[in-house]
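User
Take a look at the entry that follows and flag anything odd:
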Amino acid sequence: MPSSTIRTERRDAVQIVTLDRPGRRNAVDGPAAEALGRAIAAAERDKGVRAIVLTGAGGTFCAGNDLKAMAAGDFPTPAEDGPPPMNVTRAPASKPVVAAVEGYCFGGGFELALWCDLRVASTTAEFGALNLNHGLPCMDAGTVRLPRVVGQARALDILLTARRVPAAEALAIGLVTRLVEPGEALPEAVRLAAAIAALPAPALDAVRRSVTEQWSLPEPDAARNETRLALALLAGADAGQPAPPPSAASS
């Protein structure tokens, strides 16, 4: 069902999912989290969607969890096996996700951006675990993903100070990969997602899975997993499935 808090738009093979609560700076309450989960699940099921862009309306990505809604009990009770506050962050999406970040990207919104594969930000963007200022711990895997993106020491510097990270610093430490002028984060993210969507999906999926699955594996096992994924792809090509181009197969 469509939601007034989440908007979706299709541009060729790219699905844009927009957090749309500008009056709350796109802070997420329980219903918005459920709607976000439905929107991402629909994009994952749609065979015509090859990449997803996640963004926020009104010049803000996401200010985090809606603290007023939390105080009113408008969130499911957290549980180890239940959905996290942002609903989708427990496991990687099945398709590449690019975050387009303008303005605030705090708390659960910061963790949501870290869930994405890539982050494009404008110079207005600010990142941080500001939830810690309110005594709220991270529950959307921010403490897991941030060290993997920027390294443990930089992650602890950001988390243990609960400070705001400006866009220029985010670019310098690899938290974002592309920095653009204000208002250009979404167009740039869509261009990036379209470039991803234009490449052969099976090869990209094998590469992406190898990268994301390696963290729990010793290096030799991670290398074997890379080979296993590649051989499964090539076996599928031999069985009549679309094969990667020669340059990709031989690289």
User: Anything to note?
Assistant: Residues 219-238 form the longest helix (20 residues).
